[in-house]
Amino acid sequence: MYIQFIKREDINLDTWHLLSNPKDTAMIYNQWWYIDSMSDSQWGALVVDNYRLALPLPFRKKMGLQYIYQPFITQRFDLIGESLPAHNTVGTLISAIPSRFVVVNLSIGSQLESFGQFKVIERTNHILDLNCEYEKIAAAYNRNTRRNIQAAEKSSLVIDFGLNFRDFLMCQISWEPQSLTAPHKLRLLNLWHNMNRYAEPFIATAYVGKNPVAVGLFCVYAERLYFLLCASNLEGKEQKAMFWLLDNVIRRYARQRLVLDFTGSSIPDIARRNLGFGAQTETFFAVEKVGLVSKLRKWFG
After folding, report:
1. Cα 113 → chain centroid
2. What is the rounded average pLDDT of the residues 170-183?
3. For the whole model, what pTM was predicted?
4. pLDDT surpasses 80 at 11
5. Is 103 helix (H, G, I), strand (E, B) or coil?
6. pLDDT-based confidence at 168, cuts 50/70/90?
7. Exposure winner among 125, 149, 249, 293, fewest CB in 10 A?
8. Measured between alpha carbons, how far is 297 from 299 in angstroms, rounded to an integer?
9. Do the first three CATH levels of 3-124+283-299 and 131-257 match, i.e. the same topology?
10. Is 218 in a helix, a strand, or coil?
11. What CATH class is the domain 3-124+283-299?
12. Are 224 and 259 within 8 A, CB to CB?
């Protein structure tokens, strides 16, 4: 097995597109345009045997040190290729990450166990099959979810799917409890442009009168509906608007061959919300290179 690291400018994008779009299992995070958007086009890939397999690796440099990281709203990458890799192939590929990358923090979809310098932590994602009647999906909501939706329905909320993306960003940045989105504003504008070219993005907004109280960024790609970002203001939280917004999106896309991907989460409150809609759990794996230098990884955000 011949493995080489190829920088973004030398990657054959046509071949990459074919590798990253297998029938029924294509993931948006593996698309070159998505990686470009969220990494400022600063990434490379480990490529096996002339594109038989490949793994994207976004990287940065800080204080003269190069490191691999997981970009914002990019839950995981997959080892893409002509066929599913053997279990030991994943470890072999991770081991082939060039030594100049002194810190590695990467999430992948392939199962892997800790080995050598690499520590592996299992993470969870939540997904909901939409390919059935809405009534059947809603029947699996738990009591708390149904109660929150019923409470929201008494608040004269209105749903809309036409909010301008810059207005969405303004809401997202001003309403979210931590300043996670603001540093990535330009990347998200680029992502929105690329999603409109290569996928089907939309923004769902819950209004009270003319005032937005909750917003969500979604994107349909292949057979997944990704729930990428969301935020509510104080009024929206009081009126449980996000539960109602999600229920409206589920109602809109029910009976389609799609899986709603909640894109996480390991945060307990968000995980409970996702599971309350009847979501199932799937796993992915966070890989961290351990060692003396990696103890400094908090510097490499």
Report:
1. 22
2. 95
3. 0.94
4. yes
5. strand
6. very high
7. 293
8. 5
9. yes
10. strand
11. alpha beta
12. yes
